[in-house]
Design goal:
heterodimer, A: about 100 residues, alpha+beta, Glutaredoxin, four-stranded mixed sheet, 4 helices, 4 strands, B: about 500 residues, alpha/beta, Rossmann fold, 2 domains, nine-stranded mixed sheet, 25 strands, about 30% helix
């Protein structure tokens, strides 16, 4: 089952474009383990209210645990790759 | 040029918060942001909530509360005891919360960001309810939530510009570290500089003293300095000390103080709008004066409020009946109300608030305060002066004939600090003093000041018995009664001989 990474942006800005591109890279890296959803809060402001979105861009990972929110244009893909590694991979590494 | 000439001066809108309109001379500037700065526990959140609550309920201006700290349910619960039903306002679509408090989700910053999310939420919700007011509490939390402080400063500026553009009259609260230090912790006043309000909660002589100061209202005048306020069961109450201008017409109607001889000394009684100060040593007859003064009012069907700060209700009732005055009967008739409180029970601001509330609800024509010097005991000189100014200006405005008593520190009389503060405000001053003549202790009474009227300049002897007060003949050959240590300059030889064979 794919875990969905939700990316909140506000309009097409340089920052949001960078965030989308970076997220796309990450999703591709994990080969089908993650899916992505982009929410433009200007089109869907209710979602900003419901999900308490203050800073933009914001990326929310609900699954796999632990849930976490990443703020910014996700430019530091290196650290993000470590943060998003599925638990199963880490476990299998430890076993080796 | 034509564009500039169409610019209008900013209007002020009332807040409904007791006393704030007076301080700001009309309220907050419309479409502008006011910064409310204060250290922890100074009442910033209450002020913000009250601003919205009164704005919605009294002036029909929908509002948004952006919270960066407490969660909305907590805020709603905290103000419940003030009788403010925020849930109802939310249900009616007049109040909206934006919860920007730190969320449970761990948060990590990776790269560049801005606060457009918050701005989109504000725009969206403001549109939805047609908001006119907005509160952000407290903006300093943004500096804890986000690491890039330079960016947060820029974003706060963008947010205030947005509020202006959307026509929202706003309050932003921020914390301070010291009561008399920089205005705000993160220097936010540089962006939000239209109106700046400072709340303080200072410990003075083991008493907390809350004050509010309007530092700046752009393009407008306002009352300057620190004004005490309290947070009571009706919210924030700012006590406007010099509030009432001395413009009330003075009365020429004279009323009796309750004793025919004393009325004679004051050329027919004191004026209806007078404040009468009775000064005397302990046991000198001040309580008796208070009693006959209130009894006289009740006899004429005037409501009388008696505030006792030295004796209990029972003691006052017993004293009165020992002078032949039945206070209980008048209490039952609804003509008399006795309130006894320990001066130490609360701060002077709270005392003043209670007195004002009692006057508002009971609507007395006479007021007795026994004694004002008891209040001095529990406060600083400045605090006491504010209290006296606030009280006297209020009773003057309401035209309540008032009697204050003041206990001199020494049995023989002498100055008291109370009198130094109060004597210029009072219209009539009566001194009660012990007088020692020929090894006998007697009581003396003198009217030393009476505004706008002639009065007896002699110092007379008086006695107290079960029927009350009796004023007799003037003293002869006694000097220094008022200065504190009366001395007998000796009777004339003839009088002395007469006395010996009486």
């Amino acid at each position: 089952m794919k875990c969905i990474l939700k990316l909140y942006i506000a309009n097409e800005t340089i920052i949001s474009r960078r965030a989308i591109a970076n997220l796309r890279k990450i999703v591709e890296f994990f080969e089908g383990q993650y899916g992505m959803e982009i929410i433009d809060i200007l089109e869907d402001p209710e979602s900003a209210v419901n999900d308490h979105i203050v800073a933009i861009p914001a990326m929310v990972k609900s699954l796999p645990p632990p849930p976490c929110m990443f703020i910014g244009d996700l430019s530091d893909t290196e650290s993000l790759l470590i943060s998003l590694r599925p638990n199963s991979e880490i476990k299998s590494e430890q076993q080796e | 040029m034509s564009k500039l000439s169409r610019l209008k001066a900013p209007e002020k809108i009332p807040t409904g918060i007791e006393g704030l309109e007076h301080l700001t001379l009309g309220g907050l500037t419309e479409n502008r942001t006011a910064l409310v700065a204060g250290s922890t526990g100074t009442g910033k959140t209450i002020l913000g909530v009250e601003f919205l609550y009164r704005g919605i309920t009294q002036f029909n201006r929908p509002g948004i509360f952006v919270t960066f700290e407490e969660r909305p349910p907590e805020i709603m619960r905290n103000v419940k005891k003030l009788g403010w039903n925020l849930e109802k306002l939310v249900r009616q679509g007049k109040l909206m919360f934006i919860d920007a408090s730190p969320q449970l989700l761990p948060q990590e910053e990776i790269g560049q960001y801005n606060l457009s999310g918050l701005m989109v939420q504000i725009e969206h919700q403001a549109k939805k309810i047609g908001a006119k007011l907005l509160v952000m509490d407290s903006i300093g939390s943004l500096f804890n939530q986000f690491g890039d402080h330079a960016l947060i400063r820029r974003e706060i500026f963008r947010i205030t510009e947005l509020l202006k553009k959307r026509g929202l009259t706003s309050i932003i609260t921020t914390e301070r570290l010291e009561e008399y230090g920089p205005i705000s912790r993160h220097g936010i006043e540089e962006f939000v500089s239209d109106n700046v309000v400072i709340l303080r909660n200072v410990l003075e002589e083991e008493k907390c003293r809350r004050t509010i100061q309007i530092l700046k209202v752009r393009g407008e005048t306002h009352m300057k300095g620190e004004f005490p306020f309290t947070i009571s069961n009706t919210g924030i109450n700012i006590l406007p000390l010099s509030a009432i201008e001395l413009k009330q017409e003075s009365s020429t109607e004279r009323v009796s103080v309750g004793n025919a001889e004393l009325d004679k000394m004051t050329s027919g009684g004191i004026f209806r709008d007078s404040i009468l100060l009775i000064s005397g040593p302990t046991g000198g007859g001040k309580s008796l004066m208070s009693t006959i003064f209130s009894a006289e009012g009740c006899r004429n069907g005037e409501k009388c409020l008696l505030l006792g700060y030295e004796e209990s209700r029972e003691q006052l009732l017993r004293n009165a009946s020992s002078w032949g005055v039945d206070f209980k009967k008048w209490e039952q008739n609804g003509l008399l109300k006795i309130i006894c409180k320990y001066p130490e029970a609360m701060g002077l601001e709270d005392h003043l608030l209670i007195i004002r509330r009692e006057i508002e609800s009971f609507k007395p024509r006479r007021l007795v305060m026994d004694s004002v010097s008891a209040m001095e005991r529990v406060s600083t000189a400045r605090n006491f002066r504010e209290f006296i100014n606030g009280l006297t200006s209020y009773v003057k405005q309401e035209r309540i004939c008032s009697l204050f008593t003041s206990t001199t520190p020494q049995l023989s009389g002498g100055d008291s600090i109370t009198e130094a503060h109060i004597s210029t405000i009072t219209d009539v001053i009566i001194l009660l003093r012990y007088v020692e003549t020929g090894s006998i202790l007697r009581r003396g009474i003198a009217v030393i000041k009476m505004r706008g009227s002639e009065h007896d300049k002699q110092i007379r002897e008086f006695t107290i018995d079960s029927k009350g007060l009796h004023i007799g003949r003037p003293f002869k050959n006694v000097e220094n009664i008022l200065l504190g240590v009366p001395t007998n300059s000796g009777p004339s030889e003839k009088e002395h001989l007469e006395d010996m064979f009486e």
